[in-house]
């Protein structure tokens, strides 16, 4: 019997977590949810990619129009017409009454810059999250992660002490009575983490900032799609225009016609870019909505594993209420930072290796002391 107890104590000592450097853990914390990262990269990176394509074509090809001056124009005069019409981008025509009208087509020249403005707007919610939320979120996550790891260490040490007391107890009946008294007095509980999480149930800063981030993304994507639709209807369906060229050096030349026909050579590229950008934003909107709708449901899978420890009883005590609070957000981020929880893997392994009846009790989280019986029985079971 003493050999088995000694072996169990040795295994419990090996199960203790060692302290690690805090700075490295802070730097490696994930302070953005994976789905939010994907939304940010797509919403910001897509217009940046498209605007780089538009600028690359403009740099390599030059003016995005091709004008058709009269045949008596010299090469320099024809080049002047192309440059002037691209700089002005004004469509001139006569109405039914013979009046001279003009309409600006500057949307073609400003389209790459409007994509750049879209990218900046899409990055604004992430920028707000970075400077207003990340500092306090990192502190909360680091505190909860440390407390969960310390609760695991405390449970292992208490289980080790219970084994020693049981081995040295002169009477097993007295030992069981003392254990029951300690259980009734709740000596094994560590209420700091539980009370902190209950406090987070009454806090709404993180969840409100997540809703603000999603609302701004939906607002900016809707504005971008409306912008693209408006300019498609107003200018992007017109690939030819009449340019008034009798100005400057050609003003006093009677042989120069008033209007020269020009054609947009890059219109198809701009149309493809704008349609691609609008379609991706339309498809991205349901993803943003899903990222907000998941805040209406509790994710208790992560907490249920730690319910086998006596330091946490939010699920077993049925203390969870409305999920729209900061605690639900912290649970989502804890799941994203599960690699930083050194106790998570060991506790999951212990629950997996435990006998079925103990593992079922762990999942149902029956009672505070059941975790200590599991820690007490699991090593000897696995050792055998």
TrEMBL record:
GO terms for biological process: cell-cell signaling; cranial skeletal system development; monoatomic cation transport; monoatomic ion transmembrane transport; ossification; positive regulation of interleukin-1 production. It is found in: Cell membrane; Endoplasmic reticulum membrane. It holds the Pfam family Innexin. Glycans are attached at residue 72. InterPro entries: Innexin, Pannexin. Keywords: Cell membrane, Endoplasmic reticulum, Glycoprotein, Ion channel, Ion transport, Membrane, Transmembrane, Transmembrane helix, Transport. The chain crosses the membrane at residues 110-132, 204-230, 268-293. One of its GO terms (cellular component) is endoplasmic reticulum membrane. It is a multi-pass membrane protein. GO terms for molecular function: wide pore channel activity. This is Pannexin.
């Amino acid at each position: 019997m003493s050999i088995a107890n000694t072996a169990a104590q040795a295994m419990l000592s090996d199960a203790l977590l060692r302290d690690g450097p805090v700075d490295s853990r802070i730097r490696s914390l994930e302070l953005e949810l994976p789905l939010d990262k994907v939304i940010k990269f797509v919403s910001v990176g897509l217009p940046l990619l498209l605007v780089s394509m538009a600028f690359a074509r403009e740099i390599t090809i030059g003016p995005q129009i091709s004008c058709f001056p009269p045949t008596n124009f010299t090469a320099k005069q024809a080049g002047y017409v192309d440059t002037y019409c691209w700089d002005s981008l004004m469509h001139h025509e006569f109405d039914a009454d013979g009046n001279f009208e003009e309409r600006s087509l500057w949307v073609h020249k400003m389209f790459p810059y409007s994509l750049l403005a879209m990218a900046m707007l899409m990055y604004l919610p992430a920028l707000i999250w970075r400077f207003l939320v990340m500092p306090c979120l990192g502190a909360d996550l680091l505190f909860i992660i440390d407390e969960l790891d310390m609760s695991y260490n405390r449970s292992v040490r208490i289980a080790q002490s219970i084994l020693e007391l049981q081995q040295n107890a002169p009477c097993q009946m007295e030992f069981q009575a003392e254990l029951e008294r300690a259980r009734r007095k709740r000596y094994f509980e560590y209420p700091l983490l539980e009370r902190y999480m209950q406090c987070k149930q009454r806090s709404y800063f993180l969840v409100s900032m997540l809703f603000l981030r999603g609302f701004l993304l939906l607002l900016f994507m809707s504005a971008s799609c409306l912008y693209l639709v408006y300019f498609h209807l107003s200018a992007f369906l017109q690939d030819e225009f009449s340019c008034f060229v009798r100005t400057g050096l050609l003003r006093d030349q009677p042989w120069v016609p008033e209007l020269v026909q020009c054609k947009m050579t890059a219109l198809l590229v701009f149309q493809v870019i704008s349609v691609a950008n609008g379609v991706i934003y339309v498809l991205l909107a349901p993803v943003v909505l899903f990222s907000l709708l998941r805040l209406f449901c509790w994710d208790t899978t992560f907490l249920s594993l730690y319910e086998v420890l006596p330091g946490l009883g939010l699920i077993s005590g049925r203390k969870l209420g409305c999920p729209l609070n900061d605690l639900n957000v912290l649970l989502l981020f804890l799941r994203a930072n599960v690699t930083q929880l050194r106790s998570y893997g060991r506790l999951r392994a212990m629950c997996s290796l435990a006998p079925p009846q103990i593992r079922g009790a762990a999942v149902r989280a029956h009672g505070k002391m059941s975790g200590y019986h599991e820690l007490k029985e699991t090593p000897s079971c696995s050792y055998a």
